[in-house]
Amino acid sequence: MSGQTVREVVRDILVEQAPREVKLLDGMAALSDGQITRVFRRSRTRRDPLGFGAAEVLALVAPVVWLVVNEVAQRSAATAVDGASRWGGAWLRRVRRLPDPPTEVPALSCGQLEAVHRKVVERAQASGVEAGAAEALADAVVARLAMAPGDG
What we know:
Distance between the termini: 11 Å
Structural class: mainly alpha
Number of helices: 8
Strand content: under 5%
Largest sheet: none
Helix content: 55-70%
């Protein structure tokens, strides 16, 4: 999966599972991965973040998929790079006012894919997605994460 960014993976999943939400992700093109993560995290914790009913916000698939895929990518990056070099790279980018590089999604083991499946189901159901739809979404996320970069 090397070379695939969180944004690419999430967009591919949204195209299949929630085509209406592709515009939401595309509208965030100018934001960094970190900024998108913060927006989606905030939208989960606020009662009425976008000025319309909470039911409409809770039904969104994009935040669920983004947060899970990003978390997997961040954890893998954290184990691959020690804290000092990661901190030093972030500091250097800030000093030079460079954007953060897009987060890449690594190849995942079967155990990691099972954990992703569980996490997607849990977060989707917590966001108001019905059990069957949450399972289908989790299946799609795992299938996409299991694909090789050229398979899409």
